[in-house]
Write a structure and sequence with these properties.
169 residues, alpha+beta, 3 domains, 44% helix
Length: 169
């Protein structure tokens, strides 16, 4: 969309030739001429009409992705390994198609989980002194010109959200 408005600006306001616009954008002169003559705001590309090579393996790949999502992270097969498994089933398409399919599938799963949990809110309420959070960190500071390792104990009270830091040299 931005490219079309820039092309129109160059042609109508800056009076740059179609040949020069084509050179700058890398588009053909016919394409530049077509976009300048039409009122197109954003180019539309036709949908794919034929079936893809992955279409007949979509159900298999979906079941594999679902199975892998249930496994522990270290035990999951990568998308590349799933692609090689599809090749063993006579899939002749590219790895990129499988990767795009897997990415889209994961996106739909994440969206479905967000929709399912939307509106669910469980407030955490703690009585005074009931709970706190603790963390430990290390950092380097310069004290009197010397680098010193500083260890810090961090406490945060769950009821009041007040915090306490205790540096240990």
């Amino acid at each position: 969309m931005a490219l079309l408005s820039v092309m129109r600006q160059w042609y109508y306001r800056d009076e740059i030739s179609i040949r020069e616009i084509a050179r700058r954008t890398g588009l053909s002169r016919n394409t530049v001429r077509k976009y300048l003559a039409s009122d197109v705001v954003e180019p539309q590309y036709p949908k794919r009409k034929g079936r893809g090579k992955l279409d007949e393996y979509a159900n298999t790949l979906t079941s594999w992705l679902h199975r892998e999502s249930q496994r522990k992270l270290k035990q999951r097969l990568s998308v590349k390994q799933l692609f090689y498994n599809l090749v063993q089933l006579d899939y002749t398409g590219s790895y990129d198609r499988v990767a795009v399919f897997a990415r889209d599938w994961r996106g739909h799963q994440q969206e479905a989980s967000r929709v399912a949990s939307r509106g669910t809110y469980v407030p955490l309420i703690f009585a005074p002194g009931e709970a706190f959070q603790f963390d430990w960190s290390e950092d380097w500071v310069v004290i009197e010109g010397q680098n010193t390792k500083l260890q810090i104990a961090q406490f945060k009270l769950s009821h009041s959200r007040a915090f306490f830091l205790k540096p240990i040299l």
